[in-house]
Amino acid sequence: MSAPDLSMMDWIAVDWGTSHLRAWAMTGDRPLCHARSGQGMAQLSQDAFEPALLALIGDWLPAGQVTPVLACGMVGSRQGWVEARYRAVPCTPLAGPLVRAPARDGRLCCHIVAGLKQTSPADVIRGEETQIAGFLARNPGWDGVICLPGTHSKWAHISAGEVVSFQSFLTGEIFALLSEQSVLRHTLAGWDAAGFEAGFAQGFERPDRLLARLFGLRAGALLDGLPPDRARAKLSGLLIGAELAAAKPYWLGQTLAVIGADALAQLYARALAGLSVPVSTHDATEMTLAGLDAARALLTETPCET
User: Fold this and answer.
1) Class of domain 169-254 as given by CATH
2) Distance CA 120, CA 111 (A)
3) Are the folds of 6-139+288-300 and 169-254 the same?
4) DSSP letters along 45-97, please?
């Protein structure tokens, strides 16, 4: 494969989460190349953000030229490079002025997208607002509910181009904790689709039984020979089933879109289809890049030359 022509690069998109840093050299709305590292927010002190970014993209930056960088995610948290304060819903997913990060390297001009907050019930979004903005840029005039599954799954109600309300679920993080650190870790490995379906049905129909069902995975392995692949998939099904039961006020009777990594998005889509909920799926990376591209228009309010 030939090397990308970085002379065509006019900006850099950055998705900076808790555990990973991802960057794309962009020409217009099209990525030229991609790089990533494990230098997420959780591994960095405040003065280490610029060096971590330069270690990843320094070779992309032309000498004697300022390159705009648009970043979203935990990089804008209170523990990040610079805090991009939450904006209160209802509001559009993006708004200016963006927050400029302090940089010593004159080739860098980095602006950070703010997250969203909801005061009652208390909730926050950081990073997903950019994916929502990308989806709305690709689907102007769309109203409905967007589900963003992941470590912390989000359900966002969208109307007239604004995020009206949202709700977060700890589903992905609980799955990781249970499968990697709890007693269940001894009985989980692989994946069995039928196990997911069985777990989802139980989790959705009786979310009040969730904690008992979870321990039942361990007991089933000890006493009934529950295979590890079925147990792991059933764990996922139980948790997602309980999430969808709690999120029913969001998806019932709504136009629904799922934005996420392909395998996880498809898992949610199939579960919702089983509940007779029509849903479209969209790649999280594509929506992130589309959202950061939409954020570039806000740089007219915070130009890199100032």
Assistant:
1) alpha beta
2) 29
3) yes
4) -GGGHHHHHHHHHGGGSPTT--EEEEEEEGGGSTTSSS--PPEESSB-S--SP
What's the CA gap between 27 and 9, in Å, rounded? 5
Report the alpha-carbon distance of residue 9 to residue 67 in Å, rounded.
9
Tell me which residue of 65, 67, 54, 47 sits closest to 21, measured CA to CA.
54
Of 32, 36, 29, 110, the closest CA to residue 67 belongs to 110
Q: Which residues contact 149 (CB under 8 A, 6 or more apart)?
A: 171, 172, 258, 260, 264, 265, 267, 268
pLDDT in tens, 20-65: 999 999 999 999 999 999 999 989 999 999 999 999 999 999 998 9
The b/e string for 96-126 (b: 16+ C-beta within 10 A; e otherwise) is eebbbbebeeebbbbbbbbbbbbeeeeeebb
- Integer Cα distance of 267 and 56 in angstroms: 32
Domain ranges, ordered by start, for the chain: 6-139+288-300, 169-254
Tokens at residue 193, please? 């689709």
SS3 assignment, position 176: helix
Q: Which amino acid is at 218?
A: R
Which class does domain 6-139+288-300 fall in? alpha beta
Q: Is the pTM of this model over 0.90?
A: yes
Establish how many alpha carbons lie within 13 A of residue 93's alpha carbon, considering only the half-sphere containing its beta carbon.
30
Residue 146 CA to residue 265 CA, distance in Å, equals: 12
* 16 closest CA partner among 41, 34, 35: 41
Contact 234, 195 (CB under 8 A): yes
Provide the residue count of the chain. Answer: 306
